[in-house]
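Reproducibility note. Readers wishing to regenerate the assembly model reported in the main text can use the exact inputs given here. Chain order matters: entities are listed in the order in which they were concatenated for prediction.
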Amino acid sequence: MSHLLFERHAATLERAVQAIHERVYWSAYPESASPKNYGEGAAEAGRAAFDALLGKRFPLTQPATVGDVGGECSPFGPTLGVTYPKPDIDGLFAAVARAQESWKKLPPQAWAGVCVEILARINKASFEIAHAVMHTTGQAFMMAFQAGGPHAQDRGLEAVAYAWDELCRIPPQALWEKPQGKGEPIRMEKNFRVVPRGIGLVIGCCTFPTWNAYPGLFASLATGNAVIVKPHPAAILPLAITVKIAREVLAEAGADPNVVTLFAHEAGGTVAQDLALRPEVRIIDFTGSIANGRWLEEHARQAQVYTEKAGVNQIVIDGAADFKAVARNIAFSLSLYTGQMCTAPQNIYVPSAGIGTADGHLSFEEVAEGIADGVRRLLADPARAVEVLGAVQNDGILRRLEGARSLGTLLLDTQAITHPAFPDATIRTPLLVKLDVGDRATYLNEWFGPIAFVIATASTQESLAIVRDTVRGHGALTLSVYATDSAVIERAIEVAEDVGVALSINLTGGVFVNQSAAFSDFHGTGANPAANATLTDAAYVANRFRVVQHRRHV
Amino acid sequence: MSHLLFERHAATLERAVQAIHERVYWSAYPESASPKNYGEGAAEAGRAAFDALLGKRFPLTQPATVGDVGGECSPFGPTLGVTYPKPDIDGLFAAVARAQESWKKLPPQAWAGVCVEILARINKASFEIAHAVMHTTGQAFMMAFQAGGPHAQDRGLEAVAYAWDELCRIPPQALWEKPQGKGEPIRMEKNFRVVPRGIGLVIGCCTFPTWNAYPGLFASLATGNAVIVKPHPAAILPLAITVKIAREVLAEAGADPNVVTLFAHEAGGTVAQDLALRPEVRIIDFTGSIANGRWLEEHARQAQVYTEKAGVNQIVIDGAADFKAVARNIAFSLSLYTGQMCTAPQNIYVPSAGIGTADGHLSFEEVAEGIADGVRRLLADPARAVEVLGAVQNDGILRRLEGARSLGTLLLDTQAITHPAFPDATIRTPLLVKLDVGDRATYLNEWFGPIAFVIATASTQESLAIVRDTVRGHGALTLSVYATDSAVIERAIEVAEDVGVALSINLTGGVFVNQSAAFSDFHGTGANPAANATLTDAAYVANRFRVVQHRRHV
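Running the prediction on these inputs yields the following structure tokens for the assembly.
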């Protein structure tokens, strides 16, 4: 069966491998929610499937279940009322270890075939998952559909493609014939067996539960490891649906469904740490806070630990051909999902003497005001604004937002907006604060949420020097530069490569610095403190398995 | 110039990449020291070049030199009397950092071209290096030539091939065109720049200074990292010659020679730790003791640490078609370089009821005596024996050998042999001790040197169970099984894959369990405590660099 799955998806996999080698535009799963892509009635069926889950025990049967757990509440208002199996940790690990024994013996084709089939089924559930993502993360529906659905699925397939590309280049067998002058050569048959590391643990986050979890989940699965998925207590449902689908595919393929299991838990306690320190766990994929990521890197020494933590993303403005387009683009980046993205910009550096534009010189104040005005215009219509902003995921964001208002001169205050469909949702517009260049203690820290600082610097040279210090010391996932002078752009590229952060140059159109496209953009570099790995590259997969050989004369 | 080097060696590199994908027999550098391969007079010229180095300051000019250092003494007797530049640590790092700045900006072709040219020049110096290896490690000349010369060079080229194979698959640039329905697509130019991690540190050992250092040295160099080579104080000369050649090639190619530097030091002190904890050091390749390897893994957290430590290698005997051939093969493995190999077998498990052979049943005692007799026969002629044994590298081996004599029943005592050409050399034959299966506290530890234990087990099943515990708990680089029953062989393969150790089956001919062929055998698995990486595979190179992208609309 698993061999049939490989054949079914061989063309997709081959195309995906081509895509990772070219890194031009490609996508396996359509991002448009149109019925042309997903079928007539798919949207309604997905909504109904989601509704049917609410207020019930989630239909997931797992071994070693000792009770119920769950307490998710939609950032748009309603309590979900879904409960999940609460696992006994020892019992679950015993079942997963048994599953791992059989899974690891299958050939890489079986791992790849099962993975791509799981992704295909997840794709079919995109609408159901979109509602689950929306009502756990606070993303507006269309973003939840795209980022939580097809974009996340593409990232998962990308990981499978990297894994497959590495596994393909290890010959299962070789006939080694060493010449012996005029005598018969020495002949040996050598067998090279791919052996997975062990059990993978995926630790999810509450803002992008699928997008950030799929790369690690599928990278580990596709290299023969069983995976325990531990969602954030506030965003269990999207990963519960994912795990359910994975288990169904595994069972249908004749594999042990416990190759993929869910470890749901409620907030508080030490579940993440307890799981991470289990000796059976040999791979950990983590997305979350700097503190928790560092703790894992420091303590989970028995495992390969891949972390995407956080950082301080920055924009350097030196000049612009069309400043209105710059302001529009930045405004959208600050507003999208209320800035609750690890890639959202925070610090905006502008020379105190202002900048040159095609329409003439703009003072620092005009630049700052232009950005503030861009945000105001983008969010002027509340009905449109809520589709960009979504809802505030948690109270920590609100507290941070309130605290940031008094950090400096207010350029744009945050405002509450009422959602026409969800009156209980907490919706906030971005806050823009002017800081002095000397306020390093403030702006070198991450203020996760819709909080941005506009900072007047002596020059772009100083801006880039601050960028360098910030990325080196605190990490960053994105850097953006606006300049018309090619020498400034070259200098920005040099700084970006030096400190290891992805750079976007003069984004004024339909691409935003927060966005990272599967099969093309590398998300995170692994070269600065924000992340110790890239989603996804060869290094992300090559150490999830080992090769064990045996040889004999023939 | 560096581009010309790439062109000069492109065919070799391409052939090497083919070899790592096929892992059938291939070698770039001839292992036979014949004049047909190395030219008439090469042997004499190499000897003369070595002799010319003795008793002098080694001709290596490095920045930040603050004195002389060195105190190598040949295990065959003579003091070498060679001194090396003693670097000021801060000054050297400053110079290396400057070199790294220019080296990292070159394209991967330049890195590869320079690497293969260095290897080609090292190959030409194989005789000189062979004498240097012989008179630091104690290897007999022919082994020093092969393992320290062409075999080590092949391992270096293998690392370059893996690096090149990974780097090739990252496109320098991509045109990303995202369709927009009937509108114009969004077009972005994306640039993907390979950015090396930083400075690599290679920590050499005193038994295989070149063979164990070249993979890390060339893997780091070929991915754009500068490398500081820190030899073992007892085996500086082979790596000093290596570094000198590397610096010559770099200078001729117009690169900064400080991309490769030597950090020689005398025994004692904390040089290795001081270097390993420098924040500039981002990659460490280590070969040596378990204690030192663990210390690095634990403390050098700023760096990627690749360790090849040590372990307990084992032989399981269940049956044999030709027991005399088995005994001959094992005897050679125990004797080769006086057992001073990280791959040499230590524990030999034999069922207490004996084994079946083509010539009938052999009791446990007959098997043990057969192996002892194999050693006696192999080493009967002292003139031939010294060419197999070489000399004892250090007094620690002698002390361990003496201590092991009283651990159990002596099956074969160690003997001193006088070397006809080097009367001062310390030469010892292997010691064979019978241990009880209950003596775990003894035989589960590594007794590095010419020390082997023959252990009577209840059955091969028990032998394999001990193997499992030993590899899991203490690590191993090799496992060997002798059996005629295919079920036993299958079981041994299963155990080997389970615990992650390379297995050799029924070696009775011209291949020995201690030998690992470049481009075919993976040395170490990274799956048991003996080594956290393989020499060489994709995982060994893929994390020595990162990719930093920049993108803009076009």
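We highlight two features of this model. Chain B has a mean pLDDT of 97. DSSP finds 20 helices and 22 strands in chain B.
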